[in-house]
Write a structure and sequence with these properties.
Layout: H1 8-15, E1 25-28, E2 34-45, E3 51-57, E4 66-67, H2 70-75
Antiparallel strand pairs: 1-2, 2-3, 2-4
Length: about 100
């Protein structure tokens, strides 16, 4: 079974529900989640001569702003939700009364 691919129509439909002024970023690499800024869209054909659309990042160094926010990686099921371990009460350095 071949994996299904999102089409331009699928993406257009999903993006139409979003704020059009929002920046568009690409989430990459489930094992080391990073985000990338998109700058261009290039249309081409694949080996079977079918049309394909490629969103592309910039060649600028600031194209990759950093790690993907954890809540996005969780929403993509790239990582499990992580909670901070419970904190133990701190012990006093000296007995009450200052001595």
């Amino acid at each position: 079974m071949q994996p299904t691919e999102m089409t331009v129509g699928d993406l257009t439909k999903r993006l139409s529900a979003c704020d059009p002024a929002s920046p568009l970023r690409l989430a990459m690499n489930p094992f080391f989640p990073m985000e990338h800024r998109l700058e261009r869209v290039v249309e081409a054909t694949d080996r079977a001569e079918r049309p394909v659309v490629y969103p592309a990042e910039s060649r600028n160094a600031d194209t990759q702003p950093g790690h993907l926010p954890p809540e996005v990686a969780v929403a993509l099921a790239w990582q499990a939700p992580v909670q901070a371990p419970p904190r133990r009460p701190r012990r006093a350095a000296r007995p009450a009364g200052g001595q």
